[in-house]
Amino acid sequence: MNKSDLENSMKILKKYNQEHLLNFYDSLTDEEKDILIRQILSIDFDEIFSLYDKSMTDNFSLTQKVTPLPYIDKYSISEHDIKLYKSIGEEIIKNNQFAVVTMAGGQGSRLGYKGPKGTYLLNLKPVRKSLFEIMCDDIKRANEKYAVVIPWFIMTSDENDAPTKAFFEMNNFFGYPKESVYFFRQGKLPIISVDRNLLLQEPYLIREAANGNGNVFASMKNDGILDVMSTLGIKWISFGGIDNVLLQNVDSVFLGLTIYSKNQIASKSIFKETPLEKTAVYCKKDGKPAILDYVDITFELSELKDTSGNYLYRDANMLSHLMSIDAVKLVSDINLPYHRAYKKNAFVNEEGVKEVPDKPNVFKFENFIFDAFYFFDDMLLFRVDANKEFAPIKDFTGKFNPDSAIAKYVAFWGSV
Ligand code: UTP
Predict the structure, then answer these.
(1) Cα 219 to ligand 1 centre (Å)
(2) Please, what is the end-to-end C-alpha distance for the chain in angstroms?
(3) pLDDT value at position 416?
(4) Fewest CB atoms within 10 Å of the CB: 150, 242, 333, 411?
(5) CA 27, CA 320: separation in Å to the nearest integer?
(6) Which pLDDT belongs to residue 125?
(7) Which residues of the chain register pLDDT less than 50?
(8) Cis geometry, peptide bond prior to residue 360 (ω within 30 degrees of 0)
(9) pLDDT value at position 370?
(10) Residue 340 C-alpha to ligand 1 middle, in angstroms?
(11) What is the Å distance from ligand 1's center to 10 Cα?
């Protein structure tokens, strides 16, 4: 680091009124000074402050026309059709044209567990299994069934990349062929306090965080994953989160139906049981597949049914999607919108003391994967049974906690 780097950094911080980020500069080691200055020079201050400012003036009112996105219930399909879709899907899987992407770059701030969420050990008596191992088991079962090795792509973030890889090494990749596991890293943005300041995570480090699971497409492109997939001949990709222990990454019926119905993208959904539950649902906005935020859902809308008595706006997102490689390529070139989330993040205060807040204290800007669907005319929505396919872990005290996930897992798989 040279003198002009320091001077440039000071100029930038002055311009954006962020001089506090150098509060501890004089007491840092040379190496730490270097880290901090390099970080300041790499951050796009214009971007983060304009996101903040825009989010403060946006009135978030819904301007598009909302219509229902029809769904197909997995359990309403005839035996004959199940067989047909299965055979279409199985052909793709057996021909090594199918890959799994696990999005594991999130902060897991609600769970507050130290370490990547995927390394969290679930107490499945008599054995404890990490969320990564549970996900791995699911893909291994498919490998055995179809006599293939499905390439497994895992998205990490700057914050959790090194411990994630170390965890896989330490566990010998849970027996998964190591050469078929690919890690890639997603983008990040600084977090910002409610009163418009960037914060220090350490005296020499500005707190930045993963910029949302919707960054997966751009990251796949930037990290060369799309090229790897093309070389491998991948045609279809399943996307899922790391925290749903009942996620079915490889579902031949879902895949076959998506292909049969000539869709490029598809999502699984679960039925939203109560009308005013704070859950977003699938819909169409101005004729394009989208998600309707719960703040935009009235009781009346939630209660709307079609002529056969099926609810029109009750299909909730469970972060399980299928996309063709062409669809992924298309959206990897698009800048998806950012959403503002209110999260809990520790920071170093003015006295140099680390503060661990007990309630949300910062804004974080995130891309959401479902915003990519808006760039397609249609998609398949496939409603599945939440008891069989949805057991996420979000925190220790709410509806989606480790105990509720274990109960559902055991009910589905029997004792392990
Ligand atoms: P959530 O939105 O539930 O976030 O992620 P989270 O990071 O797990 O937890 P909180 O909100 O901070 O408490 C759903 C899935 O999307 C992934 C997560 O790892 C999880 O599998 N995700 C989320 C990413 O891969 N990157 C992100 O930037 C955010």
Answers:
(1) 15
(2) 55
(3) 59
(4) 333
(5) 48
(6) 79
(7) none
(8) no
(9) 96
(10) 14
(11) 34
**What pLDDT is stored for residue 2 in this prediction?**
81
Query: What does each C-alpha distance from 66 to 283, 297, 335, 382, 399 come to in angstroms?
Result: 7, 11, 23, 19, 29
Cβ-contact 252, 89 below 8 angstroms: yes
Separation of 50 CA from ligand 1 center, angstroms? 23
Cα–ligand 1 centroid distance for 195 (angstroms): 24
Nearest CA-CA partner of 148 in 252, 226, 253, 243: 252
When divided into structural domains, the chain yields a total of 1
Residue nearest to atom 1 of ligand 1 (CA): 106
Half-sphere exposure of 287 (CA within 13 A, CB side): 1
What are the phi and psi torsion angles at 288 (to 5°)? -110, 145
- Collect all residues with Cβ–Cβ distance below 8 Å to 154 and sequence separation of at least 6: 101, 102, 104, 164, 181, 182, 183, 184
Residue 79 lies in a domain: yes
Question: What does the buried/exposed string (b/e) look like for 135-170 if buried means 16 or more CB atoms within 10 Å of the residue's CB?
Answer: bbbbbbebbeebebbbbbbbbbbebbbebbeebbee
Q: Where are the beta strands (DSSP E) in 252-345?
A: 265-271, 281-285, 288-292, 315-324, 339-343
> Within a domain: residue 25?
no
Q: What is the pLDDT of residues 349-362, one digit of tens each?
A: 999 999 999 999 99
What are the C-alpha distances in Å from 413 to residues 130, 188, 388?
16, 37, 9
CA distance 159 to 139: 25
Q: Which long-range contacts (CB under 8 A, 24 or more apart) does 282-286 make?
A: 282/69, 282/71, 282/315, 282/316, 282/317, 282/381, 283/66, 283/67, 283/68, 283/69, 283/313, 284/66, 284/67, 284/68, 284/69, 285/62, 285/64, 285/65, 285/66, 285/374, 286/64, 286/65
Residue with the smallest CA separation from ligand 1 atom 8 is: 108
In a domain, 259, yes or no: yes
The answer to whether the CB of 106 is under 6 A from ligand 1 is yes
The domain in which residue 273 lies consists of: 43-413
Predicted pLDDT of residue 117: 97
Residue 1 located in a structural domain: no
Domain CATH number, residue 407: 3.90.550.10
Per DSSP, 198 falls in state B
Q: Does this model's pTM top 0.85? A: yes
- 43 CB-side CA count, 13 A: 28
State residue 282 phi and psi, 5-degree precision. -75, 150
Which residue, chain included where needed, has tokens 């989010």? 55
Atom 2 (ligand 1): residue with closest C-alpha?
Answer: 106
